[in-house]
Write a structure and sequence with these properties.
By secondary structure, the protein is an alpha+beta fold. It is built from six helices and eight strands, in the order ααααββββββαββα. Strand 1 and strand 2 form a beta hairpin.
């Protein structure tokens, strides 16, 4: 070996020793810290997943009956809200996993800085001062985050729900901690800050009521009309085509109003939240067919005609 090679080996030896010393003093504790953090994250994640799965399974097991078998409003609400609890358990599990990952690895980073000999006390004090300053300057952002957390925890709404948020009404597409994105009936996408949501009208939780007002002739036998409507309700309840649409058979609601030539009968049915209009149309079609078969007369109601509107009769010529 030449003198130059011996000199190069001698120069590299202190570097290798310094690297080994740094790894033993700092690298190994840091690696162990993040390894323990990864193990804790994995174990807690499995526990949260297990708890979430058990909650979903228990909610499904505790469901007292199927939707179509629930006759009373309280029973129907219990069935539907049990299904809602399954979705809520999954959402809460996802939120807990995010919070747990942030907490575990945040603590691991602080421990790693301590192992490297960095005094984190001034850093924490500075972070506190910066946090106070940001708190005053970003109160709206903090308000949005806190509101988003409570929206998820309380399950006020979720993706796919049709809601009225005051500022906009439509179908929820995404819920984040800061904003809620929804699309209204005309296709416009709205971004609503969670901190600005003061009230929520959720039309997708539980069930909705499909209401149909049907006119019959003034001299029709109302008891006969009631029996026909009840027969229609029984047939629709037994028809599998309406399983996903109707939660209860259409029922006779009574006389809603009376005019000189017609009596308006109200028919109502508990329907799926997103099937209110479809259920009302189906009830009208079945009632129309049943009335035709039974010979029930439906009066021709007089409508005011505005000259010049489409479908209006042309104005008559003035007399000569």
């Amino acid at each position: 070996m030449t003198l130059a090679q011996q000199g190069g080996s001698a120069d590299r030896q202190p570097v290798v020793e310094a690297v080994l010393r740094w790894f033993i003093d700092y690298g190994l504790p840091i690696a162990i810290t993040f390894g323990v953090a990864a193990i804790i994250w994995f174990v807690l994640g499995r526990i949260i997943s297990r708890v979430t799965t058990n909650a979903v399974r228990r909610a499904a097991k505790d469901r007292p009956m199927s939707i179509r078998n629930a006759e009373h409003t309280a029973e129907l609400s219990e069935v539907l809200m049990t299904q809602r609890r399954e979705q809520r358990a999954k959402a809460l599990g996802q939120l807990l996993r995010s919070i747990m990952a942030f907490t575990v690895f945040g603590v691991a980073i602080l421990i790693a800085l301590t192992e490297m000999g960095i005094n984190i006390a001034p850093l924490m004090a500075s972070a506190g001062v910066v946090g106070v300053a940001l708190g005053f300057g970003a109160q709206t952002l903090v308000k949005d985050f806190l509101s988003g957390i409570f929206l998820v925890i309380e399950d006020q709404y979720g993706p796919g729900d049709f809601v009225d948020l005051g500022a906009a009404t439509g179908t929820i597409e995404e819920v984040t901690l800061r904003v809620t994105r929804l699309r209204d009936l005309s296709g416009v996408v709205w971004y609503v800050r969670n901190g600005e949501i003061l009230r929520v009208g959720n039309r997708s939780q539980g069930w909705t009521m499909a209401i149909v007002d049907v006119p019959v002739a003034y001299n029709e036998d109302l008891e006969r009309v009631r029996r026909i409507i009840e027969d229609v309700g029984e047939r629709m309840a037994a028809d599998s085509r309406y399983d996903a649409m109707l939660y209860a058979p259409p029922g006779y609601g009574g006389v809603e109003s009376v005019t000189g030539d017609a009596v308006f009968i109200r028919v109502f049915a508990k329907a799926a939240p997103d099937q209110q209009m479809s259920a009302a149309r189906a009830v009208r079609e079945e009632l129309k067919a049943a009335f035709d078969a039974a010979g029930v007369k439906v009066p021709v109601l007089a409508r005011s005609v505005v000259p010049g509107m489409p479908g209006s009769a042309p104005p008559s010529a003035p007399p000569a």
